[in-house]
Amino acid sequence: MICRYKLILIDEVGYISFDHAYRTRARRQLLARTAPPAEPSATAAAILKSVVDEHPDAVRVIQLYDRHAGEWSRDRGGKLVERTWLDRFMASLPDQRTVLDVGCGTAVPIGQYLIDQGCQLHGVDSSSAMIAMTRTRFPDHRWDVADMRTLALNGRFGGIIAWGSLFHLSPHHQRRMFPIFAQHAAPGAVLMFNSGPSAGEQIGTYQGEPLYHASLDPSEYRTLLADNGFAVIAHTVTDPMCGHRTVWLARTV
Asked: What is the pLDDT of residue 29?
């Protein structure tokens, strides 16, 4: 999902204070479980760090899109500046032209274009309002309300696309997505997703509400792809021919 937004740059550590990070009940409980005098285990330390690093706006993205599904569908429209990359994605697909659309939104225009080119889509999105719209528009394809962070479908796909969706996750959750991508990739499958040009967090606005975005460093994306069985086919930073989006295209090896 792409929006027009004002950027507020935040460093990789984030600006959330220790006190703020533990204000909620769940975070206070986590702190109690890992509090001195005992040193936290490596697992507990990793969980603790992920909680500290989670920006408060990161947990509000799903609700924002659910509340404004109709406005988003109107504003996104059918303009397809992504056509060149979508064509490259489809040209790289193996014979299995089944595509998993992760964060499919309302499926217009991305999903619609893939369908028009003969792909069979299985789309997932956390917004039930958007999925309801998509089921009405394209009833011959499968659309599920699902959180990509816990996705575990019974099937593998020739293509996986996370266009305008992965970058709404916090860095911690983005890292955890690459094993999920690998789990759903058929032999020779291609993966395409967007990121930011460099590591950091950015807060935009949509309908007057904060909209969270994040990116890892390009070198970390390359490592995550390689560690999960993908080889990079192409990577373009702020492509001027694609609305200045940063795009990754990779294939299973």
From this structure: 44
β-partners of residue 214 are 201
Nearest to 194 by CA among 249, 125, 131: 249
Q: Tell me the HSE value of 214 on the side-chain side, using a 13 A CA sphere.
A: 25
Domain enclosing residue 31, as ranges: 17-53
- Residue 33's alpha-carbon distances to 26, 50, 55, 144, in angstroms, are 11, 15, 21, 36
- Of the three residues 53, 74, 101, the one that is the final residue of a domain is 53
Determine the longest span between alpha carbons in the chain, in angstroms. Answer: 61
Give, in order, the Cα–Cα distances in Å from 201 to each of 17, 110, 197, 204: 16, 25, 11, 10
Candidates 242, 223, 144, 123; CA nearest to 178 is 223
Question: What's at 227, amino acid-wise?
Answer: D
Per residue in 56-81, pLDDT (tens digit) is 899 899 999 999 999 999 999 989 99
**Pick from 163, 182, 67: nearest CA to 111:** 163
Q: What is the pLDDT of residues 160-170, one digit of tens each?
A: 999 999 999 99
pTM score = 0.80
- Whether 66 and 190 share a structural domain: yes
Total of domains in the chain: 2
Residue partners of 248: CB distance under 8 A and separation at least 6: 191, 192, 193, 194, 195, 221, 225, 232, 234, 235
Does 130 fall in a domain? yes
**Is there a single domain that holds both residue 109 and residue 42?**
no
Contact (CB, 8 A) for 105 and 125: yes
Answer whether residue 236 is part of any domain.
Answer: yes
What is the mean pLDDT of the segment spanning 135-153?
Answer: 98
Q: How far apart are CA 201 and CA 198, in angstroms?
A: 9
Residue 30 neighbours by CB distance under 10 Å: 19
